[in-house]
Amino acid sequence: MINYLRFRLIDLLRGTRSFRLYRELSVSQFKSQAEVASENNFRKIALLKLAAANAAVFQGMDSTDLVSWPKMDKDTVRSDPQGFINKNYRGRRFLKKTSGSTGAPFQFESSELAQSYLWACIYLAWSAAGYRLGQPVAFLAGAALFSNTWKHKLFYRLMNVYPLSAMGMNDDAIKDHCEKLVRKKIKVLYGYSTALHTMAQYVLQNPKAVNDHSLIAVMSTSENLSMIAKRDIQNAFGVRVFNQYGCNDAGISAFECEAGEGLHIVWDRCFAEIDADGHLRGTDFANVASFFIRYDTGDLATLSHEPCKCGRAWPRITEFSGRANDLVIDLAGKKFPGAYFSNLFIGSGVKGFQVHFDECRIKILFDNQGQPFEATRLLDRLKRDMSFEHYSIVEAPFVVQANGKRRYVIKMEAVE
Ligand SMILES: [Zn+2]
Predict the structure, then answer these.
(1) Mean pLDDT of all residues in the chain?
(2) Distance between Cα 257 and ligand 1 center (Å)
(3) Is the separation of the CB atoms in 189 and 237 below 8 Å?
(4) What predicted TM-score, i.e. pTM, was given to this entire model?
């Protein structure tokens, strides 16, 4: 009961209704497929009508068939930010900023309902991993996932969330994080996959660091979870690793269920589709402050509408092949997603990798913790599969972005 009150209080202070929404979603995720599909269609039509009536760029659109609506991405919004705004929206507007994987910041207006979904979906994802409301959770992240204002600090206190910084993670910092995990009896460790992986590598070498921990699950978010990272995290903490995905501007939030066969998209909030190029696009029903329709997430994914063993009828993302701009494109124009490189390293014992490429060179950096590594076979495979003028595989430190995230593939002006 106290927990419920705490979560209600957060909503009151934040101007959201995430807690109520979370309870609604907990029920609606188990509705029948027919019911889920018909409600989704109903919401989709309502949203399209609202957009046509209230946003300059959609004026005159009279079709409620989504396929006939134009596709959009960050650049479309940047070219005419006012055009996508609901000029008649009277609710509270939240100004949201994302860093964007290319580093160029992106700003947009979000509604109270969309903001409420943001947290409701996170509670829901934790719940699928076994979390019960109010249990202690640790956030391992950079500034993008939490901020340090007094208000946020208060929210975290009320939610029983402990922020752990993913920035500058040396052994001392990780040791502190581990101590906190144990001392605070953390149930769910939630964070960026690369940061979780770094922590897991430390724990694998110092298993006593998390002796007697209370974790029930680790949940990775914001970045692709490589198979190597997943295996190491699982081995380090001895609990299951769940994946969570969110593209807030597209209205898409998805989480891995107990069945572990993909990530269910919170289907009350959006409609998701995969275009001919494999891009995941979202139509957000919740953001009625500005409209995001058939909006490109920049992620390459596969969707399934087949029923899931867990009983949830919401469609699933069954595969991520990485960020669309995380593709390596060789001299012949052939494209290779991040997953290609994950596969290269399977069974090699390598702890992590990062691919740098430019017009004519490709260089793979790997981390094998100084252990000898035979790269000839991998180099041969690369030469067989892709055409570049120079190929190299070296052990070297990775490039990390200012926000603490680490990308697997980076297109450089010039690879050194
Ligand atoms: Zn499921």
Answers:
(1) 89
(2) 5
(3) yes
(4) 0.83
